[in-house]
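Subject: mismatched residue count in predicted assembly?

I count 237 residues in my input, but I want to confirm that the predicted structure covers every chain. Input:
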Amino acid sequence: MLVLTRRQGQAIVIGDNVVVRVVELKGDQVRLGIDAPRSVIVHREEIAEEIRAENLAARQAEAVNLADLPLPPPPAVKAGPPPGGSPDGD
Amino acid sequence: MTMVSVDSRRFGTIEVDEKSLFEFADGLLGLEESTRSLVLVEQEDTPYFWLHSTTDPDVAFVVTDPWLFWPDYDIVIPDEIEEELGLTGPEDVGIMVLVSVRPAAEGKTPSVTANLLGPLVVSSSTRRGCQLVLDSSRYSARERIGD
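Triage response: the counts match. Full output below for your records.
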């Protein structure tokens, strides 16, 4: 991994058209400004990771019957117990 | 109307109108290859749909309209996404969220969550779609449905 030291206001250039600038330093936080073409997707790593993991978890939920999933609460009423309740025992 | 065949582990082979397919140029994160072409399969009498890969019989998702469950759900579609999908106006935009169903421990109800952090946006006219990555701490990728 290439590691560079930059001061506030300084930037690094990636390829022909991506610029990452250190906008502000505050405590243990760094604000970065990113200039990139629209085709370059920029995400916070942990959010993209979370979504990736959840996409995989959502794939082909085994033997799900859509009719068994919870219904939305009626409009303007706070969510109550699920309709019908859950019969106990066998 | 041109019909195409979609192989599905769940539904067998289904015939769908070619015009009803959604094209996700980037696919979904983590499943990029199998999610570039998707089709919605409706099921009567539920607020949920299946969103099925047209290229991988094993890849299908349960999706729903987030506003049915979270009327205050609030997202902003960035201009570049609007442009990329060719969105023409509010009536052209379709938003859905992926639903995960995790099997329950015995005697308990399964855990059902929706991914409000990565909603899917589609254009009903151009049929292009993408998954947004919201830059927000307000929403979770595992928001519980029903309790």
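Chain A touches chain B at residues 38, 41, 43-44, 47-48, 50-62, 64, 66-67, 69-73, 75, 79, 82, 86 (CB under 8 Å). Marking this ticket as 'not a bug'.
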